[in-house]
Amino acid sequence: MTTPFGQIGVQDVLDIAVVAFLIYQAYLLVVGTRAVNVVRGILVFAGVWVAAQLLGLTTLSFLLGRAGTVGIFALLVLFQPELRAALERVGRPRGRDASASGAALQDLARAMERLAERKTGALIAIERRTPLGEYAETGVNIDALVSVPFLEALFARNAPLHDGGIILQGARVIAAGCLFPLQAADGTYRRYGTRHRAAIGLSELTDAVVLVVSEERGSMRIALAGRLGPDLNGTELREQLRELVYDYPVGRPAAPVKAAPPEPADAAEPEDGGPNGQAAPEARAERRPEPRKEQT
Ligand SMILES: Nc1ncnc2c1ncn2[C@@H]1O[C@H](COP(=O)(O)OP(=O)(O)OP(=O)(O)O)[C@@H](O)[C@H]1O
Fold first, then answer.
1. I need a surface site. Which of 84, 112, 196, 230 has the fewest CB within 10 A?
2. 196 C-alpha to center of ligand 1: Å?
3. Where does the record place the region Disordered (predicted)?
4. How far is the C-alpha of 143 from the C-alpha of 124, rounded, in Å?
């Protein structure tokens, strides 16, 4: 085919399609994770470098060029988890059985309710786009379908794996007794216990949806994008799980992780109110939940 840019053959089209596909996959990998800020930084850096070259600022463009060479190696180190994630993703089977996801959602929510009723502490991370393999390695590998009795048995007080968190991949539990990164003790959530801070910490570093049942209060909460949501009842929990995890087909970017789960309707202030008197999602996300110790 002849175009203003010369001859374009089937190979060129294939070449462009593959590169576009790879760029899209890279985008899916970083969107919703903290890596997206690093990508923004790189784009700004590249922009300044190009501008320096165009304006003939030789010293600046020389320095930025040298820094860029070193930066490539730094990026390999910085993006090591994402690169590893990409390779893991390539090898992972695709597709998601909708009925299995629906059953897992119901079983998970029911198990959370039962654990909360009995005030049995639980910590459950649900993998989305960021693979949680490195956290799964800190615990015991399991490959079992999510079910109410199984989850209850895992977190039962004297069970060998009740300490730590479990990791879910779709409808399967892949690891139990895992250590999650603790959220820094100097932040908003410093007065929370370690279970809640581990949930917040993991959600801060990955796009996982992390569920917590408090042993002390018997409450159910979701940590997302470094924020801890409010207490949820069973219906709210199911809605959140449906929205955040089980409705997301493979290949579509994960749910936006900036917004924390909404505050309950009775906590919404009138000035934030939308048509239903509920806070707008962004406004709700900014509101900090009350520290646990003060609530008891
Ligand atoms: N880094 C971690 N990763 C995973 N689980 C952890 C981690 N740190 C603590 N836990 C879990 O949290 C439990 C201790 O919870 P702790 O009482 O300190 O937290 P909490 O936030 O007050 O929760 P609760 O309201 O259930 O008491 C531990 O027994 C362990 O199961």
1. 84
2. 7
3. 252-296
4. 15
Distance of alpha carbon 50 from alpha carbon 45, whole angstroms: 9
Residue 8's pLDDT band (boundaries 50, 70, 90)?
confident
Q: With beta carbons less than 8 A apart as the criterion, state whether 285 and 258 touch.
A: yes
- Check pocket membership of 75 for ligand 1, CB cut-off 6 A: no
Q: Give distance in angstroms: CA of 123 to centre of ligand 1.
A: 8
Please determine, for residue 89, whether its predicted confidence score (pLDDT) is greater than 80: no
Contact between 228 and 201 under an 8 Å Cβ cutoff? The reply is: no
How far CA 78 is from CA of 49, 51, 82, 137, in Å, comes to 21, 26, 9, 20
Burial 104-115 (b: 16+ CB within 10 A, else e): bbebbbbbbbbb
**What does DSSP say about strands 209-213 and 220-224: parallel, antiparallel, or unpaired?**
antiparallel
Per-residue confidence at 269, pLDDT binned at 50, 70, 90?
very low
What are the tens digits of pLDDT across the range 133-187?
A: 889 989 999 999 999 999 999 999 889 999 999 999 888 999 999 999 998 766 6
Element (H, E) at 61: helix 58-78
- Are 123 and 199 in contact, with CB atoms under 8 Å apart? yes
- Position in ligand 1 atom list of the atom nearest CA 219: 25
Residue identifier of the C-alpha nearest atom 8 of ligand 1: 194
Q: Tokens 């985008």 — which residue? A: 27
Specify whether the CB–CB gap between 142 and 175 falls below 8 A. Answer: yes
Indicate if ligand 1 lies below 6 Å from the C-beta of 163: yes
Start-to-end Cα distance in the chain: 73
CB 161 less than 6 A from any atom of ligand 1: no
Q: Both tokens of residue 115? A: 């654990």
Q: Are 209 and 109 in contact (CB under 8 A)?
A: no
Is the C-alpha dihedral spanning 272, 274, 279, 284 positive or negative? negative
Lookup: tokens for 110: 């029911």
Residues β-bridged to residue 220: 213
